[in-house]
Each structure stands twice: as structure tokens, then as C-alpha cells.
């Protein structure tokens, strides 16, 4: 029997690359997608197609209305606008407070119940939007917290978060994914939730820059292709 | 303007005592209750009454169907039975994997959005059910993780979890709460979700033992009052 892994799958470029990595390593995959009232919730449909592509064992879609209810981010609050002027050095208004903390907490519970010992998450601290919950220090600390909280802490193998893209640039991620046959045509990245993608939000800009640097054609349609 | 605090409120004895402590310290309270498909979800109604008693600024009730969907605990899986034979040394089947990790993650997000810097949680590692997510090592590690993940990590005051009951016995908690005028008549503890309370599940047993040791009359009705 194959080892099991939980893969946090948004339907975007990075998490879909993680699916490719987990599949390449032979894991039986339990995909976990969050429907948290994000402006770009069409990504949930993309996640379904990606999960189907990889023939996952189970795909759970978790509704988290709470994040929309409390707002506080341009991704969940319809009153706030998504910036389209380019990536800056500050933590942007698209940051959803504690999002990956919440996602990884729920993934830990899921992993413990299905008997997975590995959780994949596609965070990267290179070519990213400056979100604090994408940094390697956060992942390391979260691993420590998980080790203390789960039942398995008394056993030999704790649940461990793997963030295989954390030190990769977007271009490196795309090169790796392309080698692994990752279906980028099924993914979406646009924060504005547009199809064709807007091409000007931070997420579209970072994606386009990555494909350009990798020398690979981005297979999805755009309204406009802005350099980052 | 008063300082704000998020209080995780189940409607049970410990979290209601935390409400009393937060109120006594003068915090403006943002109560957070989780409806996660627990067998004893009548506690949500008790939480509402407690929140009303304390005149909280806001009371959010978060639906988390996911925990019920994945099961894995006697508290969320109707197929599993709640033990009634007494408290043992093992992690019991009523443990909900990662429950406090999930609750604190969502509380962190809530605190960040409303501008609270303190989160109260009523965990105790004395007279408890052996859950790993109630131990002080977990709280300390979670505080470290929160410090790394939240926006406020760059500012002076990070969000901090306070677990004022973590080293208190149940009797000490009840003595403290009684001094603070905590409305224990509004609370419930029964894992079986019964009213009158069953008196024989771990949670009823620990509560009854605590009141007996504190020399205080437990104001709620029981089917039977078993010594722990």
C-alpha cells in the first residue's frame, strides 16, 4: 500500500505543482481545498479538475464562511479592491490573516484521521506577495507546533509539513512542474477571479513573470499580459 | 477605549471561567464559539447565554462541518461511543484531532481583524482528559507560530494566547470562578449532550470531582452524580 499524503490544493500554479511532486513520489493523495469566500473562488472548480487529473484517493472541499464573515482582506471583502499596480515590498491588502495557519491546522486534523504523515503545501518565499505565512520560519514553527499537538507525537513518525517550493523562484517551480508533466492548462491564478485572467493583479504578474523567465508558454488565456 | 480580547467560548465550565477572567480584567470581549458537529452541540446554546450574560461586544459562531465530515473522534462521529467508565491515562477516543490548533488558528485570524492582542482559551493540563492540545508546551509553541505568521509580528505587540487555567486543577478553577461570580448555572459539560447531564462521561466526572473538591454545589442537574 502506498504512503498517504494530504495535499493542500487551491487550483493555482504552486499547489498544482505540489500535486505533481506528491504524485511523482508515489503518494496516495488526499487533496484538500478551501472555499473561504475568496473573490477568486472559481479556483475551486480548477482544483476539482486538477484532483481528477491526478486520480486522487479523496478530495475534500472545506467551506470556511468565517473568513468571509470577518473580512479584513481584499481577497475576502468585496468592499476592498485588489491592487493592480504591481508587487510592492509591504504586506499587501490581499493578505488573509492567518490563512495558511488555518489551512495547515485543518490539514493536520485530516492527516491524522486518514493516517497520512505528510502534508504538502505550495508556499514560496521567493517571487511571492510578501505574506508572512509563506516563509520557511513559519513552516518550521508550525511543524514544531504540530509535533506537540497531534496524537502521533508519542509515536515514531510525526506529521510533517513539506513545502517543496519554499526556496524556489516561480520560474524554477514552472521548470520543475513542466518536467513532471503538471497540467498548468487546468490551473488559474487570477486574484480577480477572471477568465481570461486579468494579467495585472499581483498573482497574474508573478505567474507571467515566472513563465517568461522559465522560457515556457503559459497555456491559459489573459486579457492582457503585463510584465511584473 | 478598552483593550480587546478574543475569548474561545464553548459554553462549558472552563471557557466560561475564562470569560469571567477576561471581564474582570476589563477587556472588551469578542467571543468565538465553534459548531463543529460535536455530539454535545447543545453547548452552543449555553455559549450564547454566557455571551449575553457578559454583554460581549461580538459573538461569532463558526460552523466547521469539516470536523464532523472527517470524523475520527467519539465527539464528532455518531458511530463511535463516548466512554462512561471513567478517566484513563491514554489519549481517549473523544480526542478531536488538532481541535485546539484549529480553534486557535481561527481565533488568531479573528483577533487580527478586530484588533485584539489577546486570545483566551480555557485549556488545563490538570484534571483533564489527556488531550495533547491542552498542554502548556502546545500553547507555548502555538504562541511562537502565531508570532511568525501574523502581520503584527513586525510591530511591537504580537497576538498572545493566554491560558489562565492551564496549571489549575478543576477545583481551583471553580474556586476562582466562584470568586469572580461566573454563572456556572448557564454552563454545560456533558459529552453526551444530555440535559440533565449524564454524570458518567469523562467530562461530567471531572466537573463533579472539581465541584466536590472545591466544596461548591454544582448548580446544574444530573441524571446521576458519579465520583470520578
Automatic annotation (TrEMBL), chains A, B:
Zn(2+) binds at residues 190, 198, 201, 204. Its cofactor is Zn(2+). Binds 1 zinc ion per subunit. Pathway: Purine metabolism; 7-cyano-7-deazaguanine biosynthesis. InterPro entries: QueC, Rossmann-like_a/b/a_fold. Gene3D superfamilies: HUPs. It catalyses: 7-carboxy-7-carbaguanine + NH4(+) + 2 ATP = 7-cyano-7-carbaguanine + 2 AMP + 2 diphosphate + 2 H(+). Keywords: ATP-binding, Ligase, Metal-binding, Nucleotide-binding, Queuosine biosynthesis, Zinc. Its EC number is 6.3.4.20. ATP binds at residues 9-19. CDD domains: QueC-like. It is an enzyme of class 6 (ligase). Belongs to the QueC family. NCBIfam families: 7-cyano-7-deazaguanine synthase QueC (TIGR00364). Catalyzes the ATP-dependent conversion of 7-carboxy-7-deazaguanine (CDG) to 7-cyano-7-deazaguanine (preQ(0)). Homodimer. This is 7-cyano-7-deazaguanine synthase. The gene is queC.
